[in-house]
Amino acid sequence: MRTHHTEQGFFPYILTTNPEPDPECNITATLYKNIAIKRKQNEKYALYQEHLKKAQSVQRTLCGVVGNNQYTPTVVAPIPAEVVSFFTKHKIPLSPSQDGTYHIKVNQKQIMHALRDEKERLGKSLSKEELELLPKAIQQGRVLFDKSHQNIIFAYRLPNDMWAKFCIQPEYNVKGYEKENLLVTAGVVEEWILLANKYEMIKKEGEDE
C-alpha cells in the first residue's frame, strides 16, 4: 500500500493494476481497427484490379480476344511440329483441341501469376511487353523439354542478353475447363540456367521447323 500526501495529511491508496475498461475506448479501438482492415482490403482489391487489367491486355495482344473470366483459356498459337513429334516419340501426352490439333493457350490467372509483384521485386519478372513476346519465342526461340516437370520451355533472347523463359504445362487442369497446354509461368533467366541437365534440347533458336 502507498500513501498520498495532501495538506490534510497522508492518505493511503491502492494502485489498481487492472482498471475497469472504458466501453467507449473499446468501441473506438474496434472502429479504428475495422477502418484499417477495410482500407487494406480496398488497397488489395485495387491492386488485384490493376493486375487483372494488365493480364487482360496481354491476353488480348497474344490471342486477339479476352476470356470471359480469369480462368478462360484462349489460343496463342499451334504447338510446333518438332514439339508434337518429340512428345509423341516419348509417349508424353499433350492436350488436343476439338479438331485434334495441339495449341498453346493462356488465361488471365496464370498471366497474373507470371507478372506477380514478388517476382518483380526479385528481378525475375518479365515486363508486360516482354511477356507479349511469347509468339516470337514459339516461332523463333529455343525450345526445351523440362525433364523434371515434363513441361515445354520456350526461351527467347532479350536485348540485354538475358532470356525470357515461358513454361507451358501440357494437360494442365484449368478450373471449369478441359485440360489444356497452358502457359503456367514466365520469367527472366540467364542463359546458363537453360543449359542445366534438367533440360533437353528440342530445337535451337532460329531453326526452321
Short structural description:
This protein has about 210 residues and is of the alpha+beta class.
**Uncertain segments:** none
Order of helices and strands: EEHEHEHHHHEEEEHE
- The protein's oligomeric status is single chain
Largest sheet: 5 strands, antiparallel
- Give the tally of β-strands: 9
Portion in helices: 25-40%
Q: What is the residue-averaged pLDDT? A: 85
Give the helix/strand class.
Answer: alpha+beta
Which outline best applies?
elongated
Work out the strand percent: 25-35%
The Cα radius of gyration reads 28 Å
> What's the end-to-end separation, in Å?
93 Å
Which sequence of strands runs across the widest sheet?
8-7-6-5-9
- The number of helical runs is 7
What report would you give on this structure?
- This protein is an alpha+beta fold.
- The protein has helices spanning 23-63, 81-89, 108-114, 117-121, 128-131, 134-140, 191-194, and strands at residues 2-6, 9-13, 74-78, 103-106, 142-146, 151-157, 163-173, 179-189, 199-203.
- The strands form three sheets. A five-stranded antiparallel β-sheet has the order 8-7-6-5-9.
- Strand 5 (142-146) and strand 6 form a beta hairpin.
- The protein is elongated and about 80 Å long.
- The N and C termini lie far apart (93 Å).
- The model has no long low-confidence stretch (mean pLDDT 85).
List keywords for this structure.
five-stranded antiparallel beta sheet, 209 residues, 28% strand, alpha+beta
Secondary structure: elements and pairs:
Blueprint: E1 2-6, E2 9-13, H1 23-63, E3 74-78, H2 81-89, E4 103-106, H3 108-114, H4 117-121, H5 128-131, H6 134-140, E5 142-146, E6 151-157, E7 163-173, E8 179-189, H7 191-194, E9 199-203
Antiparallel strand pairs: 1-2, 3-4, 5-6, 5-9, 6-7, 7-8
